[in-house]
Amino acid sequence: MIKVFNHWFYRATIARVAIDLMFPVVCVILVAVWVGRGGEIALEKVAFYALIFALMSIAFNAWLGIYQRVHSRTRAETRARAVLSLYLAIPLAYVVFSMLSVAEVDRGFMLLSGLAALFATLLHRVHSAHSRSGLLLSHRVLVFGAGDEAENVGRVLRKSDPDIHIVGFYPSPTDTELVVPAQVLLSRDMSLSDTAHSLKVDEIIVAVRERRGGALPLRELLDCKLSGVKVLDLASYFERALGQIRIDSLRVSWLIFGDGFRQSWRRTAVKRLFDIVAASFLLLLAAPVMLLTMLMIILEDGFSVFYRQERVGLDGRLFNVIKFRSMRKDAESDGQPRWATANDDRVTRVGRIIRKLRIDELPQLYSVLTGDMSLVGPRPERPYFVDQLTRDVPFYAVRHSVKPGVTGWAQVSYHYGSTVDDSIQKLQYDLFYVKNHSLFLDVVILFQTVGVVLTGKGAQ
């Protein structure tokens, strides 16, 4: 994996983006040269429009989740998304190249160049659906440990990272029970450093919970690191591979002495400026949709249109969040707070639509302008549930060190959740955001939020 602006990307993902950028530009230029034989043609202008087309296609692909961080979907679903992206690219190609005003270029050129670019992209998509790694060399990983933690790491590696090859599991002296299969166990006859060098290992993941009493061969791990082999603990590995900070592998010392969790005045100023500009633009853009939503709510269930509720914000301060009302007026008539569920019978018919498309969240843009919220951040929770989760879930209060957001890393990375266990899963993504938040990551999350809305993955 490669770190870009404090955010991890799979090498395969970067390669796919590069190929998606290269194919349209190269194909269009080749067709332009072929069509323009015997005459002059402005290749620079053609290449510029081809680049615009390629960048817009990449944006569509990102919204459709084709470059998604963890690829757990089936090959059939991958191919379906690829076909959908091509269907979107066809009218896009027509619109972009119709603006190309070069006298020597006729309709035949536009047709040939567009079809050539789309055909090349289709070949790449089909190949990617059958071979995730593509032309990239595999990354050789050795897991130190053979217990439950090691087995969990191996399962996550095989599921989430298309680039790795697990060479084996090296048992720790403190492993009381060997959980991983015998065929992948490495012999302890050789030292850890000698084993890593003989197997040409690129990376060692330390997957043991107990580290006292000589459990870790510190000298050998240091030798491996000094010889160019990366060494990661569980928390760092899950942060990089899954975009989350796992509570079950987290230590307070790691939070204190590790990098990240930066809250500089410069980052705060940039984030606030971005929030004001983006929220103002989105409010103007969404005004017709918001007016239509208000009318639909009134026609179905009368007034009131908005729903105000107390939530916990930055540093534990309380504020009122504003949303379009999606539930019946008597949703909590007994005064007892309850988790909202995916198929909640309290939701109105209009409410189901606006929750599915996240239109109910649009009034929160006003809270962004007032400074109570940010566009991107952990979702604000109700005080009743915050008190409960703070008691039951370690490190839950850490998420309140940044402003809550209209959307967040947990919302684009995890499905709809309505239980304490779901809150724990989302917290692990929130901790990743709090540790690594940047303007670049905010833009990535906003792009993926559009993809969540377009593919109908739901609300919350």
What do these coordinates show?
The chain is α/β, with parallel strands linked by helices. It folds into 3 domains: about 1-130, no CATH class; about 140-240, 3-Layer(aba) Sandwich (Rossmann fold), CATH 3.40.50; about 265-455, no CATH class. Helix 2 (about 45-65) crosses helix 16 (about 440-455). Strands 4-3-5-6 form a 4-stranded parallel beta sheet, with helices on both faces. It has a two-stranded antiparallel sheet with strand order 1-2. It has a two-stranded antiparallel ribbon with strand order 7-8. It is about 50% helix and about 10% strand. It is globular, with a radius of gyration of 26 Å. It has helices spanning about 10-35, 45-65, 75-100, 105-130, 150-160, 190-200, 220-225, 235-240, 250-255, 265-300, 350-355, 365-370, 385-390, 410-415, 420-435, 440-455; strands at about 1-5, 5-10, 140-145, 165-170, 205, 230-235, 305-310, 320-325, 375, 405. It is a multi-pass membrane protein. It is found in: Membrane. Belongs to the bacterial sugar transferase family. This is Sugar transferase EpsL. Its EC number is 2.-.-.-.
Structure keywords:
single chain, 460 residues, alpha/beta, Rossmann fold, 3 domains, 4-stranded parallel sheet, two-stranded antiparallel sheet, 16 helices, 10 strands, globular, Sugar transferase EpsL, EC 2.-.-.-
